[in-house]
Amino acid sequence: MPAIVLITGATGGFGSAFAKRFAALGSKLVLAGRDMNKLKGLAEEVGGTSYLVQFDVRDRAAVEAGLASLPPDFAEIDLLVNNAGLALGADPAFKSDITDWEVMVDTNDKGLAIVTGLVLPGMVARGRGHVINISSTAASYPYPGGHVYCASKAFVTQFSLALRADLIGTGVRVTSVEPGMVQTDFSLVRFKGDAERAAKVYADTVPLTADDVAEAVTWAATLPPHFNVNRVEIMPTTQGPGALGVHRT
Ligand code: NDP
Ligand code: 8X3
């Protein structure tokens, strides 16, 4: 069981589920998010011992300040769960808002790399630690309207594997967790508050839950130190890869 767990995007669907699971296991939590009120509400709901840090993962100075503010009994992070992320839009690439592309790359890739880069040296110095990156099936299976989101998650998976290459012999583990369809606010965010469109994503099917993803994350995190899960890909039973697109005249 990791003693100290830092979760980014803790206020969202996955992040809150991870917080509950790790609190139940007895881990101390560093809950990171953009909204301090939501973080406080989560900490009360979760119980256990937590420290709250407010930062936007895209803002390197804010992440540095947040991590520097950790009291000594929360500073030695054993597990970093890089979870903060989002998709924006699902229109074809040639009709998309390039600002949405910037936000996705800045959050899912730049932000994830910043947090990792700041936490990793301490783990290496201590000779132990684990980074779990929340990627997606979108990293491996592109779909229409996925373009930059799919590519941003391919970065997460490949970054995770490349970190493994650098970390051999350090005692630090890295895992890429790659879920398919999971019902959270993800689609509401993607469709910019259009609740009807978001609900259609999950209609008449059985998606995974955030707690299902937490099952995969806690499994990888609680294995013995010699055991590294490189990648975990999970989907609902009701989902599978689609056919390649063909244009017919
Ligand atoms: P939610 O929208 O419920 O949660 C996303 C979380 O990320 C929120 O806490 C949000 O905070 C936070 N966040 C977004 N941008 C930033 C930022 N710039 N800085 C800090 N925090 C930020 O979605 P999920 O819980 O479903 O998504 C969590 C992760 O899982 C994402 O990386 C997503 O891409 C990935 N994923 C989701 C799947 C799904 O089907 N749901 C499947 C596969 C992967 P705030 O409330 O402040 O916006
Ligand atoms: C979220 C899953 O299929 O909407 O990463 O891209 S999907």
Automatic annotation (TrEMBL):
Xref: InterPro entries: NAD(P)-bd_dom_sf (IPR036291), Sc_DH/Rdtase_CS (IPR020904), SDR_fam (IPR002347)
Keyword terms, alphabetized: Oxidoreductase
Domain of life: Bacteria
PROSITE patterns xref list: ADH_SHORT
Pfam families found in the cross-reference section: adh_short
Entry GO MF terms: oxidoreductase activity, acting on the CH-OH group of donors, NAD or NADP as acceptor
Family label: Belongs to the short-chain dehydrogenases/reductases (SDR) family.
The protein's name in its UniProt record: SDR family NAD(P)-dependent oxidoreductase
Taxon lineage: Bacteria, Pseudomonadati, Pseudomonadota, Alphaproteobacteria, Rhodospirillales
